[in-house]
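Hi F.,

I've been meaning to write this up properly since the lab meeting, where we talked about keeping a consistent format for the predictions we share between groups. The idea is simple: the sequence comes first, exactly as it goes in, then the structure tokens exactly as they come out, then a line or two of notes. No screenshots and no reformatting. I'm using this chain as the first example so we have something concrete to point to.
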Amino acid sequence: MTGASAFTGRQVDLLVFVGDYQRRFGYAPSFEEIRMALGFKSKSSINGLVGQLKEGGAVACLPGVHRSLRILLDSDDLDRMKSGQRTNDH
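Output, unedited:
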């Protein structure tokens, strides 16, 4: 089991946003949509967070494929993260 404590506040924000978006629309948000939703100034910040999450085995995406970000965590883990979600913690 992976808990929210294994991730930074911004990583949890990203995971929760992407999970909610995928449930709602059936596909992943673009990095620009993630940037706007989380209040980052640049997409490079999103790239950095996604890279950290990929290294940790929490997400995967296909290089060069738009909207291919997938969360590899259990939906129960995401729900636990959502209940303790932090926001605007840059």
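Notes:
The chain has one domain: 7-81.
The CA atoms of residues 30 and 66 lie 7 Å apart.

If this format works for you, I'll send the rest the same way.

G.
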